[in-house]
């Protein structure tokens, strides 16, 4: 209900945000605030300072640059959901985003906030992995690009370093690729108990799951099983069996490890069926 | 005069202020000099309090006081009593702030009062409590095991009370000679009420007059005043005013006389400053009284002809750590007495054991006992019908109490005054097209789709009465209701009721009835409630009593007004009062419409008393205290249609249809809204909600990330209709409707889910039917014809 006291700073540009981060050790970046603020109200986090980057103009918007889409980190879910560019070139993002929270959450929440927070049950990380996205971060030492495959390193942890800001997401445009996201939402929080994203391009499938483990991860067994095969109902059903061993999966009141493992198979099948138009 | 407003779907006069954020809730209020309280609560379910060091908190800038339980006890503040006593019931003391042991997570161990809420919350973290954690027990049956940790030292076996009703020998004999019997072990899941408005209390003490005022989130402010004055604080009753302003939902959780109310009153006097406390949602989860939580063995016996001959029930009803205001009545008279339902069952026996546990105290929660009774009875009926190879609807029809059997004496104390159950059932079946639904179900099953249809009939008993009866059953309260109707010189009318509206729309519905009775515009009527300083004594709102009891009192008071108005009119029109008729908004001489006086004329003359009958008192107001002759007995048929996804175990509601009989409907918009909300709440229990405790007594679903309330997309558009069977013993023939949806829908949805799972050979699962639970049950027993992948 009541946070501990903190300093609030509003950044007008990426470089200002980077220098504010240097001036305020242990500060947190404020984007949509839907994960950070509740944590602060419950006093599970008490950062001494918040640096608000949600209104930094150069961090917002979706644009096409050559063979890839560039999505600014502070682009809101609502903007992603309604982006014509994404609907045309990368429909899995609007589809996945539509399943996040409710309209109020989607009006405030941002892609960069979600990816940097790396909640193990967040929706977008699975799509990032399936899309082979690149994540651009910027710090006092300059900018670097991290492949989505290397970005999520643990529960709420990423390959970003102290002082770095997630600035952009780069998604390759794949003409003719078929993609879908299937989610089994937590009945209360509506986070993903299990969410599977698949992108089928030519004879190859990239698939990733969120909610199942400590962080979003590729479903390599599924990818291998379907490599070079047509996406028929038979092939899909045969491939979606025992995709992840239950031992290392998350478990909570809603889903045990065994049930989660089963849901991974079911959601993978449903995502593939949808992608294949079956 | 306009048409009658009774039966009109008027929009609620309350809504503009609620939906524009201009309501006046307790937390909205700010008084000069007001300070704030924060509670220090036990993180343990059971712990000895070895030492409390308040020095750091006390010296934190802005802190005015840190109050401990010992301090309040030394100041002569007593424990909080319960409002319902059974023979032999154990009532260990319940102090607002505990000082020896913490008995549930959230039990208050100290209160910090500070200049701002922020300071109070910060300083509460500085109170150092040295706890010795002790073994805890959360489940009722665990608390009854030998050697279980005692919640209260003076109740070593944890048994708060035992209770039974019915002729056990006759029931046992009926079971011994039964054609068939079925037996279910049922868990009625514990629920957190989650009113939208968290609890809040604001206390003010006026030194000059030695008077207290308490604004608080209450369904029954007079009960609070009585308990605080007579039992807890010893404040003379006339020196304490309790006001429950706008209250954002109660559902039973705002009946209870809560510890925080005592703490802010005590602190307000101690500091001579107004003191406010508002719950954080995380506090609400562990301190608002919870609902349900039964473990039950339920049995049913039938004879050769398929008639139910007996029902036998043994229930463990978890009371939580302390007794709330109403808790002992809920799993007893509001539960055991309802086990006849709508059926002619001749023999019923119900035994209840109520243990204390290291959990949040339990109290009435929407339906209170009646949903638990309906759930177990309707589950038994469905299982028995299946056992007999009968359609569950036909089995019900065979056992319904026929319309010519009223008044109908059940074997469990209640006498139903009226009912027409079969006609109500038939209407529902026709509206839902039951036959076609069953055909569709068959077709879907062939396609591997699992539709379930749950049809239930139910009865509820609401408006507990008469007072002498409820007193003989253990109530420490009356159950009559009061009304004061005050006509002003300009003809405007204030109506004071002892009931309380916290979402039920009384300000609209009651005004409609008063406007009809007095034949005046509805805009000229205002309902006043929730303030012990303004209205006559009353017992508040719960158990769907406000319309049948409270509004009946109002109607009878308005009729006194009419009688007096006729005398005044007769004087002014130089006629006999017997010749005055009240028609078209006028008082006129029968047959002489020109000789008439308006309500305004009469109201003005009653106050001027210039040209006035010599033997009549001036003024125009009337009070009526109404003690009903009996409960009222609404009933209905609810039908749920669901589909179970066998891949994930997820249950989806496809249709919901209800046909309720609450007598004549005052305002269909409000009555339907009550049903809609109630149905959603009942569906929540069946599919989504559960207060889950671990072995240490920690609640695992104590926030909205884990505790699933129903949302719009869990619901469907409810199809709703009525039958009308008036109550024979109150002036308008009205019955309650506030709880019907909750009482019925849990059972209807439960039966629908179990019906969907029938091809898998599943007979019974406990609620809530969460996806994994359903999926596991399916895995354990795959359908005979559908060897799934």
From TrEMBL, chain A:
<dbReference type="InterPro" id="IPR016166">
    <property type="entry name" value="FAD-bd_PCMH"/>
</dbReference>
<dbReference type="InterPro" id="IPR016169">
    <property type="entry name" value="FAD-bd_PCMH_sub2"/>
</dbReference>
<feature type="domain" description="FAD-binding PCMH-type">
    <location>
        <begin position="1"/>
        <end position="176"/>
    </location>
</feature>
<dbReference type="Pfam" id="PF00941">
    <property type="entry name" value="FAD_binding_5"/>
</dbReference>
<dbReference type="InterPro" id="IPR051312">
    <property type="entry name" value="Diverse_Substr_Oxidored"/>
</dbReference>
<dbReference type="InterPro" id="IPR002346">
    <property type="entry name" value="Mopterin_DH_FAD-bd"/>
</dbReference>
<dbReference type="GO" id="GO:0008805">
    <property type="term" value="F:carbon-monoxide oxygenase activity"/>
</dbReference>
<dbReference type="InterPro" id="IPR036318">
    <property type="entry name" value="FAD-bd_PCMH-like_sf"/>
</dbReference>
<dbReference type="Pfam" id="PF03450">
    <property type="entry name" value="CO_deh_flav_C"/>
</dbReference>
<keyword id="KW-0274">FAD</keyword>
<keyword id="KW-0285">Flavoprotein</keyword>
<dbReference type="InterPro" id="IPR005107">
    <property type="entry name" value="CO_DH_flav_C"/>
</dbReference>
<dbReference type="InterPro" id="IPR036683">
    <property type="entry name" value="CO_DH_flav_C_dom_sf"/>
</dbReference>
<protein>
    <submittedName>
        <fullName>Carbon monoxide dehydrogenase medium chain</fullName>
        <ecNumber>1.2.5.3</ecNumber>
    </submittedName>
</protein>
<keyword id="KW-0560">Oxidoreductase</keyword>
<dbReference type="InterPro" id="IPR016167">
    <property type="entry name" value="FAD-bd_PCMH_sub1"/>
</dbReference>
From TrEMBL, chain B:
<protein>
    <submittedName>
        <fullName>Carbon monoxide dehydrogenase large chain</fullName>
        <ecNumber>1.2.5.3</ecNumber>
    </submittedName>
</protein>
<feature type="domain" description="Aldehyde oxidase/xanthine dehydrogenase a/b hammerhead">
    <location>
        <begin position="20"/>
        <end position="135"/>
    </location>
</feature>
<dbReference type="Pfam" id="PF01315">
    <property type="entry name" value="Ald_Xan_dh_C"/>
</dbReference>
<dbReference type="InterPro" id="IPR016208">
    <property type="entry name" value="Ald_Oxase/xanthine_DH-like"/>
</dbReference>
<dbReference type="InterPro" id="IPR008274">
    <property type="entry name" value="AldOxase/xan_DH_MoCoBD1"/>
</dbReference>
<dbReference type="InterPro" id="IPR000674">
    <property type="entry name" value="Ald_Oxase/Xan_DH_a/b"/>
</dbReference>
<keyword id="KW-0560">Oxidoreductase</keyword>
<dbReference type="InterPro" id="IPR046867">
    <property type="entry name" value="AldOxase/xan_DH_MoCoBD2"/>
</dbReference>
<dbReference type="InterPro" id="IPR036856">
    <property type="entry name" value="Ald_Oxase/Xan_DH_a/b_sf"/>
</dbReference>
<keyword id="KW-0500">Molybdenum</keyword>
<dbReference type="Pfam" id="PF20256">
    <property type="entry name" value="MoCoBD_2"/>
</dbReference>
<dbReference type="Pfam" id="PF02738">
    <property type="entry name" value="MoCoBD_1"/>
</dbReference>
<dbReference type="InterPro" id="IPR037165">
    <property type="entry name" value="AldOxase/xan_DH_Mopterin-bd_sf"/>
</dbReference>
<dbReference type="GO" id="GO:0008805">
    <property type="term" value="F:carbon-monoxide oxygenase activity"/>
</dbReference>
């Amino acid at each position: 209900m009541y946070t501990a006291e903190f300093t609030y700073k509003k950044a007008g540009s990426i470089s200002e945000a980077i220098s504010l981060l240097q001036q305020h050790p242990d500060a947190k970046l404020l984007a949509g605030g839907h994960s950070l603020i509740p944590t602060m109200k419950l006093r599970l986090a008490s950062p001494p300072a918040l640096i608000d980057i949600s209104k930094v103009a150069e961090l917002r918007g979706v644009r096409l640059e050559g063979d890839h889409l560039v999505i600014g980190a502070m682009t809101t879910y609502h903007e992603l959901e309604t982006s014509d560019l994404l609907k045309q070139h990368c429909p899995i993002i609007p589809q996945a985003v539509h399943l996040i929270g409710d309209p109020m959450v989607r009006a405030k929440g941002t892609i960069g906030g979600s990816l940097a927070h790396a909640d193990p049950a967040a929706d977008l990380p699975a799509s990032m992995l399936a899309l082979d996205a690149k994540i651009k971060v910027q710090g006092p030492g300059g900018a670097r690009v991290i492949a989505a495959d290397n970005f999520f390193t643990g529960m709420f942890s990423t390959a970003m370093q102290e002082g770095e800001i997630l600035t952009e997401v780069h998604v390759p445009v794949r003409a003719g690729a078929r993609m879908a996201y299937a989610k089994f939402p937590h009945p209360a929080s509506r986070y993903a108990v299990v969410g599977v994203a698949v992108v089928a391009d030519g004879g190859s499938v990239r698939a990733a799951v969120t909610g199942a483990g400590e962080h979003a991860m590729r479903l390599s067994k599924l990818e291998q099983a379907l490599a070079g095969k047509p996406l028929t109902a038979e092939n899909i059903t045969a491939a979606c069996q025992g995709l992840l061993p239950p031992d290392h999966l998350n478990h909570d009141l809603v889903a045990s490890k065994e049930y989660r493992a089963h849901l991974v198979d079911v959601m993978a099948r449903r995502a593939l069926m949808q992608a294949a138009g079956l | 005069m306009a048409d009658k407003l009774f039966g009109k779907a008027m929009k609620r006069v309350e809504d503009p202020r609620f939906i524009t954020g201009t309501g006046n809730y307790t937390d909205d209020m700010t008084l000069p000099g007001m300070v704030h309280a924060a509670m220090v609560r036990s993180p343990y379910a059971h712990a000895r309090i070895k030492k409390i060091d308040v020095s750091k908190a006390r010296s934190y800038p802005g802190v005015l006081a840190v109050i401990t339980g010992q301090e309040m006890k030394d100041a002569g503040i007593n424990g909080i009593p319960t409002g319902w006593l059974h023979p032999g019931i154990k009532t260990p003391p319940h102090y607002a702030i505990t000082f020896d042991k913490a008995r549930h997570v959230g039990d208050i161990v100290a209160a910090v009062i500070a200049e701002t809420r922020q300071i109070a919350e910060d300083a509460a973290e500085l109170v150092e409590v040295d706890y010795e954690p002790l073994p805890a027990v959360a489940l009722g049956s665990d608390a009854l095991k030998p050697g279980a940790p005692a919640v209260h030292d003076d109740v070593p076996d944890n048994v708060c009370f035992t209770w039974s009703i019915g002729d056990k020998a006759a029931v046992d004999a009926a079971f011994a000679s039964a054609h068939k019997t079925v037996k279910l072990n049922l868990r009625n899941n514990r629920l957190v009420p989650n009113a939208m408005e968290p609890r809040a209390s604001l206390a003010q003490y006026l030194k000059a007059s030695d008077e207290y005022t308490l604004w608080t989130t209450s369904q029954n402010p007079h009960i609070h005043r009585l308990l605080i004055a007579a039992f807890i604080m010893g404040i003379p009753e006339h020196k304490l005013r309790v006001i429950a302003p706008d209250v954002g939902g109660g559902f039973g959780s705002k009946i209870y006389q809560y510890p925080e109310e005592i703490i802010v009153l005590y602190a307000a006097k101690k500091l001579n400053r107004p003191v406010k406390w508002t719950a954080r949602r995380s506090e609400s989860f562990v301190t608002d009284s919870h609902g349900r939580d039964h473990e039950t063995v339920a049995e049913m016996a039938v004879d050769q002809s398929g008639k139910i001959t007996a029902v036998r029930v043994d229930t463990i009803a978890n009371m939580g750590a302390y007794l709330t205001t109403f808790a002992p009545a809920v799993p007893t008279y509001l539960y055991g007495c309802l086990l006849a339902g709508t059926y002619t069952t001749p023999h019923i026996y119900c035994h209840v054991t109520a243990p204390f546990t290291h959990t949040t105290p339990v109290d009435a929660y929407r339906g209170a006992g009646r949903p638990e009774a309906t759930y177990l009875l309707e589950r038994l009926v469905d299982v028995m019908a299946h056992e007999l190879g009968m359609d569950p609807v036909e089995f019900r029809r065979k056992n319904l109490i026929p319309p010519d059997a009223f008044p109908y004496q059940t074997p469990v104390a209640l006498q139903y005054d009226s009912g027409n159950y079969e006609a109500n059932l038939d209407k529902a079946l026709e509206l839902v097209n039951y036959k076609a639904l069953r055909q569709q179900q068959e077709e879907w099953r062939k396609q591997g789709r699992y539709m379930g249809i749950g049809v239930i009939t139910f009865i509820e008993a609401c408006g507990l009465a008469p007072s002498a009866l409820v007193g003989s059953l253990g109530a420490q309260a009356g159950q009559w209701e009061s009304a004061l109707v005050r006509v002003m010189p300009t003809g405007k009318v204030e109506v004071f009721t002892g009931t309380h509206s916290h979402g039920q729309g009384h300000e609209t519905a009651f005004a409609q009835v008063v406007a009809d009775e007095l034949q005046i515009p509805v805009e000229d009527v205002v309902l006043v409630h929730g303030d012990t300083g303004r209205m006559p004594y009353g017992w508040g709102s719960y158990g769907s009593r406000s319309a049948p009891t409270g509004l009946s009192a109002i109607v009878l008071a308005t009729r006194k007004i009419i009688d007096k108005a006729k005398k005044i009119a007769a004087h002014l029109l130089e006629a006999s009062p017997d010749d005055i008729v009240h028609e078209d908004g006028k008082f006129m001489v029968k047959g002489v419409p020109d000789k008439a006086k308006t309500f305004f004329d009469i109201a003005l003359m009653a106050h001027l008393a210039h040209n006035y009958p010599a033997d009549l008192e001036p003024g125009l107001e009337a009070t009526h205290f109404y003690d009903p002759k009996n409960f009222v007995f609404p009933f209905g048929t609810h039908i749920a249609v669901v589909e179970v996804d066998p891949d994930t175990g997820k249950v989806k509601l496809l249709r919901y249809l209800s046909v309720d009989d609450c007598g004549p409907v005052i305002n269909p918009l409000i009555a339907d809204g009550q049903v809609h909300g109630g149905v959603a709440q009942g569906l929540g229990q069946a599919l989504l909600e559960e207060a889950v405790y671990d072995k240490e007594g920690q609640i695992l679903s104590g926030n909205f990330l884990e505790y699933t309330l129903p949302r719009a997309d869990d619901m469907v558009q409810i199809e709703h209709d009525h039958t009308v069977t008036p109550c024979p013993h109150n002036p308008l023939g009205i019955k309650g409707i506030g709880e019907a949806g909750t009482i019925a829908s849990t059972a209807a949805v439960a039966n629908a889910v179990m019906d969907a799972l029938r091809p898998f050979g599943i007979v019974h699962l406990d609620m809530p039917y969460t996806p994994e639970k359903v999926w596991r049950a399916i895995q354990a027993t795959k359908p005979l014809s559908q060897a799934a992948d």
